[in-house]
Design goal:
2 strands; single chain
Length: 96
Amino acid sequence: MNLNEESLQKIAELSRLKIDPKDIQNFLTDFNKVLNYVDTITELNVSSVSDEELYPNEGNSLRADKAEEGLSRSQIESFAPSFQNGYFVVPKVIET
């Protein structure tokens, strides 16, 4: 599959990206390399490979879901330079 300039412009438009006209050829080259690589991968014959080899069962990599003791309110308050009425006080960053 090869991407043409018109398709690249459409992808850029949908992605809300602006591609400088002088960079279009570089983008086309790079995109086409990626697409050709994907085509190569999809052509691989994996029919002789078992599901266990394709999707090894490594078990659950997440930690056990159990309740643990958390930080006390005083410990949390000690992390902040300013804490008031149960909230962290931070400088105003957005003008209204």
